[in-house]
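Entry for MU-OXO-diiron complex. Fields follow.
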Amino acid sequence: MTDKTPSTRDIFNNEDSNKTNNPHIDQIMSARLKRRGLLLGGMGAAATTLLGAGALSGCATASTAGAGGAAAASGVLDTLGFAAVPKSLADKVIVPAGYDVQVIYALGDPLKPGVTPFKNDGTDTDWDWRAGDHHDGMEYFGLDANGQPSANGTKRGLLAVNHEATTDQKLSSFFIHANGGTSTLPRPAAEVDKELSIHGLSVVEVQATAGGWSYLQASRYNRRITPTTEVMISGPAKGSEYLITKFSPDATRARGTLNNCGTGKTPWGTFVSGEENWFGYFHRDAKDDERRGKKDKQVAALIRYGRPAGAASRHGWESAGSEDKYVRWNNGAVAASSRADYRNEMNTFGYVVEMDAYDGSQLVRKRTGLGRFAHESVSFAKPVAGQPIVAYMGDDSRGEYMYKFVSAAKWNPADANASNRLAVGDKYLDKGTLYVASFKDDGTGQWIELSMNNPIVAANPDFEFKSDADIAIFTRLAADAVSATKMDRPEWGGVNPRTGDFYMSLTNNSNRTVDGDMGADAANPRVYSDMKNGKESKGNVNGHIIRVAQANPADTAFKWDIYLFAAEADADKSTVNLSNLTDENDMSAPDGLAFSAATGVCWIQTDDSAYTDKTNCMLLAGIPGKVGDGSKKTLRYKRPDGSEKRVDTYVGKSQSPDILKRFLVGPVDCEITGLCETPDGKAMFINIQHPGENTPMAEVGNPAKYTSQWPANAGYGAGKRPRSATIVITKKDGGVIGS
Ligand code: FEO
Ligand code: CA
Ligand code: CA
Ligand code: CA
């Protein structure tokens, strides 16, 4: 393999939109509150609103397990019973001895009777009834033997799957077009129609029989949600002037979901999915700022969300014709008002969407109360009767933030069994409070409220917030106002069922430097250099996983440490390989992260391009301890002027192979993602995303030049073009995965 220039995917995924220089929250608070003429007593009250009761008196109890720190689930594993899989560059899925792996659901697979088997040569049709591309986050929803919803169903169930994006270079999604497609503008409508259909979500029924697992082409549950499917706007932003479009002049409806990345499963049994890199799909011509005029505050917001005037769209969908389904991707103010154009269309993306996998009769909801950013997963703290529902989330771009939503409604356990599950979602996800994380150097932190109750947001001089709807839509600017901590690309999160601690992958950050706006800090402490094929990368090259402990999930005070620092095993142990990783568990770019409800194992999936000279992306199993189980470490950086910068950080206990081990390595050029399991922990489903993505577009007709031919080379399906696909892993002895 040779080192590649960044793929189109990298360019569109790793947006740098956060140019704010965030001073410390204490400075902001005192400056703004002074300006508002608040007396000391008033400041105390405001600070309590801002930081939450308890924050000002410290948070010494944060590490004791509270409501969310449930007793360990039965069946938890304290040891990992498999032999570590070695790193690999082979074009196949490798699992430990004693395990079986099967491909069950790949790009293009038909989802209703009569749709022809996938030919995989670029000539297939009926895309609205085929599996979409780039399988990403995924959740399992059980069915009983009669095909009725059953949370305990282990032999039959539904997979709800995100189809995040497509393998593309130079505008076109090249593997789905016979000759690679058109890489110039305007794009042909027929190509764009296919590309629209391969994005979004799918629901597919799967079943275990004596021969193993397979998907059911004829299941009544199978369906697709694409970027053109009608959806409902829900929560505080419903009806906002900034969501008015030609399609929905009352701002209550929108079309579709896009760039769906991480997922979550609600305590009431629905599927939630994060819209991640949607901004890249919109076109803004160079004159759009001028037309909008200086008074339009959206100009600042469009820049903050990665769409300056003149921004070109990822696929040129807006160029495919005059029909509304193409024109809507032009985000310019081109008509007389927002009721006559799509200047606000981009504001209808960037949310968590909620879908009932079991019920195709209801529209998907955009849950605007959870904020608008490059969403990944949604991790729910264990629900406790009489306490609010708490969900943790991240914004995946360099230097973006971590968020938490706390519902206004208190949990009623009867809601776990409601038949109208989306009505339960309305109850818990449409009213509540959004917070953003501020990490302090002393190992504590605060969740800062983003609402009109917070005087710093309400009186923000840089961007005027008039309502909680404005905060829901322009969340990043509200988080800037309170000087949230800029993180190293927050990806997936998970709540440890043993302790209640919340874990979040920070996948990497090439913009992390020793000093400056994104200078090394306690929570993002590493800045170093790594070589790959003679080429140097700098910053936090390999990523880390941070974790947060709270006495109660709804609290605003927390303690934190770093569960593990990803690194190459032979990297320096005092500056880079701080978790003492070895050949059995070294990794780069942790991304997908999920705790098994059955075993408590922390499953870590990678989406890497830094260590791919030595290994394809992988899945690891960890048995983590808890926040505070390691020690303080001081990193020392020499500045060009000879002075030293010291950064204290808090590292969890050393990661020996007993408690962290590589379980799987995927085929060439893939990302490992989407892990979910049957409730008994005996079947684990994983997505292999974009194998072969670095194949040059010009070689689309030349299978010998594909960097991957998976899953065809594993005996699945026709043709040789690589396909994103779902696999299932079972243990040969029928046991629990990882045991
Ligand atoms: Fe879709 Fe942040 O990965
Ligand atoms: Ca290296
Ligand atoms: Ca991801
Ligand atoms: Ca990623």
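NOTE: Residues 8-278+349-731 form one domain.
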